[in-house]
Design brief:
By secondary structure, the protein is of the alpha/beta class. It contains 13 helices and 18 strands. The protein has helices at 77-86, 104-115, 134-145, 165-178, 189-201, 208-213, 216-233, 245-256, 267-271, 274-277, 299-308, 347-356, 362-376, and strands at residues 3-12, 17-25, 28-33, 44-47, 52-55, 57-62, 67-68, 71-72, 89-97, 122-128, 150-154, 181-185, 237-239, 261-265, 313-314, 394-404, 423-433, 436-439. Strands 1, 2, 3, 4, 5, 16, 17 and 18 form an 8-stranded mixed sheet that branches. Strands 6-9-10-11-12-13-14-15 form an 8-stranded parallel sheet. Strand 13 (237-239), helix 8 and strand 14 (261-265) form a beta-alpha-beta unit. Helix 7 (216-233) packs parallel to helix 8 (245-256). The chain is globular. It starts with a strand and ends in a 24-residue tail after the last strand.
């Protein structure tokens, strides 16, 4: 038996803050006590005085090795989970993809093959439903039973991932019976494609037009439509990467009616804006993602939504493409720029900066980054908290250290940072994943294959 004692730190969970010693045996937390009150012995003692002791982050929205736009996301499961660990995230939920004409099982098996034996931290899968038919609807039931309990549908990307309202309704009806959670990319893709075609015909080819054609109103409209379809089906709904004030208003209105509707936003919408998309030359391509970055004035509504719990989760939608050779595919045609930003390593630090800036409290930081994503996707209390019986996924966090975010020092396999040069207060110092130290005082000590596939129960907000 291996015992680790984390002593003298301020333990912060979604529920409480208390100075406590934390005792870990093997992979689990076994006890907590007032500092110095127990004479515990341990092979390893970590001094956390003047530091925070927080649960490892749960990033419920990543895309490692995702095929998109004729290329692949540049982080493998090995590099991406290493970078996650560096940033204090100890569990990711990635998206397995069903390709049109193939079964859900084939897509899931392909993602298992990509990840198996490669991950530095624990991982789970959602399933992207690209082809809703009788067979895939039946397969949904089987996947929920074996721990893949959430399914993503797209109102965007006609010809790639797009589902029409009828298919969305069928999937939602199935989820209302089998306990699955439908995740929705809410943008009116059919209308957006018309606007893309018209912009290109006018010679508007620069990256900033990516944001201009993907209108706020088309995100709000799709969010409204998804909510109404979920109501008709009697199903819960989780809207991913919410970026616009008007979309937050649709979620808030639904939640005011008591509907089981949830929303996620991402650091890029909280910290970046259309100013970045409009950077000179082709630099704006670095910031092309969907939903797109919005004018800065939308940020206040997102922060407010996080405070009022109309938005419950901050995930990254980590989907990195290198500027050289990948983002450049869209020179002369913004519609060919691969959509996605790197961020899995930056989320916990950026959200701590939000605490420093007064946008959210420390407990809310842990709630939106650890506890709620774990609950939302059936991983709690194994993940997302520090309590006896929980997995020993623990971060020793220095709230006073300053750092400058840069591609030169990050560990993601991508040649730029979306937050290049940004100074933040707070830094991950040591990370335990199931009791094993994977970052030791800013040195990587983890290994590919330590991370285990983690089946999930159904959404814990619906029980």
């Amino acid at each position: 038996m291996t015992r680790t004692l984390i002593s003298g730190g301020l333990v912060i969970t979604a529920a409480e803050e208390l100075h406590a010693d934390v005792l870990v045996e093997n992979s689990r937390v076994v006890a907590m006590a007032t500092p110095g009150s127990q004479q515990w012995t341990a092979e390893r003692v970590i001094d956390a005085s003047q530091k925070y002791v927080i649960p490892g982050g749960v990033d419920a929205h990543t895309h490692m090795e995702l095929p998109f736009g004729g290329t692949f996301a540049s982080d493998s499961f090995e590099t991406g989970t290493q970078a996650a660990a560096w940033g204090g995230t100890t569990t990711i939920v990635d998206f397995a993809v069903q390709t049109i004409g193939h079964s859900l099982r084939e897509g899931l098996d392909a993602w298992h093959a990509k990840a198996d034996g490669k991950c530095a931290i624990d991982y789970a899968f959602h399933m992207i439903l690209s082809d809703v038919d009788e067979n895939s609807l039946k397969e949904m039931d089987l996947l929920v039973e074996e721990g893949v309990s959430s399914f993503k549908l797209f109102m965007a990307y006609p010809g790639v991932f797009y589902s029409d309202d009828g298919r969305i309704l069928r999937a939602m009806q199935r989820a209302s019976v089998n306990g699955g959670l439908i995740m929705m990319h809410a943008e009116n893709g059919i209308a957006i494609d018309v606007l893309v075609e018209q912009a290109l015909a006018r010679g508007e080819t620069d990256p900033r037009f990516h944001g201009e054609v993907r209108k706020v109103l088309l995100e709000a409209e799709a969010t409204h439509r998804a909510i109404q379809l979920a109501r008709v089906a009697g199903a819960p709904l989780y809207v991913v990467h919410v970026s616009a004030e008007e979309a937050v208003a649709e979620l808030a209105a639904a939640r005011d009616k008591g509907l089981p509707v949830f929303g996620e936003t991402c650091p890029q919408y909280l910290f970046l804006s259309t100013d970045n998309l409009a950077e000179p030359g082709f630099e704006g391509a670095k910031y092309v993602c969907s939903t797109p970055l919005r004018p800065r004035e939308h940020q206040a509504a997102l922060w407010r939504g996080l405070r009022t719990n109309d938005l419950q989760v901050v995930s990254t939608d980590h989907c990195p493409f290198c500027f050289n050779g990948q983002k450049e595919l869209g020179r002369g045609d913004f519609s060919k720029i691969p959509n996605g930003l790197p961020g899995v390593e930056n989320r916990m630090d950026l959200l701590h900066q939000a605490v420093v800036d007064g946008h959210i409290s420390r407990r809310r930081w842990i709630e939106i980054a650890c506890a709620t994503p774990a609950r939302m996707f059936g991983l709690y209390p194994k993940k997302g908290t520090i309590a006896p019986g929980a997995d020993a996924d623990i971060v020793i966090y220095d709230p006073h250290a300053e750092q400058v975010i840069s591609a030169e020092t990050h560990h993601m396999s991508v040649d730029y940072s979306a937050y290049e040069g940004k100074t933040v207060t707070g830094r991950v110092e040591t990370v335990l994943s199931r009791g094993e130290v994977v970052i030791d005082r800013r040195t990587y000590t983890g290994r590919a294959g330590h991370g285990l596939y983690t089946p999930r129960s159904t959404c814990q907000y619906l029980n």
